[in-house]
Amino acid sequence: MTTQVALVGGSGKLGRIIHAVIDELDGFEVRNVLGSASDLSELDGADLIVDASTPAVSIEVVRAALQRGINVLVGTSGWSQERISLVRPLVTDGETGVVFIPNFSLGSALGTALAAAAAPFFPFAEIVEAHRDSKIDSPSGTAVRTAELMTEARTGQGPFHAPHVDQRARGQQVAGIPVHSLRRPGVIARQEAILSGAGESLSIVHDTVDSAAAYAPGIRLALPFARDARGVVVGLENIIDIGIRTRS
């Protein structure tokens, strides 16, 4: 049986990549594409909803999907743990699932997982992320997810040291980690997690140089997973087998 997909935000950059992947993927078909002027009633009849909209619209899409009992795969950025907690109560019947993927890149998922694994060993950390100048939200969803997991990994060691964070130039505090966002032309996506300790530092860098090529493998993995998911799952690292699991 073919899985009928309602794609929200299909005319955007990520939405177009997702559409192309679905067109090539056996067992999946785009039922309809929703844009900014679409009514959410157009979600009716879908087997899976894929959200690649904007942060302002995304939460309404997720709510509408779960109210209809339809699983949803969220690729829209801007979903922090605090925001995800707003929709968790809607996923309590064991019959639906919502999968949040801050970044479909396999390398990005690995970079985030490695930064979390290293976090207990270094008392200082900062994140620098760069995206194209048209990206709406900052910090990026990937940076937020990375910071949250790094701090969570330090439960036994306490929070990172972050001096002088009262100064605006020190970046935005996300889970106690200064995050610095660059928005400029000529960039697709780049993130560097910098961990420091006595006499040494460790930098974990991920660069996206071709978004279509980088995101397609993760999208292929996420689609069937999201179709069958139950409950809330956050992060591509919980779908691929990299030997590291994080909290959803």
Give the SSE layout.
Blueprint: E1 3-8, H1 13-24, E2 28-34, E3 48-51, H2 55-67, E4 71-74, H3 81-84, E5 97-100, H4 106-118, E6 124-131, H5 141-152, E7 172-174, E8 177-183, E9 189-197, E10 200-208, H6 211-228, E11 231-234
Parallel strand pairs: 1-2, 1-3, 3-4, 4-5, 5-11, 6-8
Antiparallel strand pairs: 6-9, 7-8, 9-10
Q: Give the CA-CA distance, first to last residue.
A: 29 Å
What structural category do the secondary elements indicate?
alpha/beta
Largest sheet descriptor: 6 strands, parallel
**Into which percent range does the helicity of residues fall?**
25-40%
CATH superfamily of the largest domain: NAD(P)-binding Rossmann-like Domain
Total of DSSP H or I helical runs spanning 4+ residues = 6
Give the tally of structural domains.
2
User: Strand-and-helix sequence, N→C?
Assistant: EHEEHEHEHEHEEEEHE
Low-confidence stretches: none
Indicate the radius of gyration in whole angstroms. Answer: 18 Å
Query: What is the CATH domain class of the largest domain?
Result: Alpha Beta
CATH topology (level 3) name of the largest domain = Rossmann fold
Strand order of the largest sheet: 2-1-3-4-5-11
Q: Give the total of beta strands.
A: 11
Mean pLDDT: 94
Oligomer: single chain
CATH architecture of the largest domain: 3-Layer(aba) Sandwich
Overall geometric form: globular
Strand composition percent: 25-35%
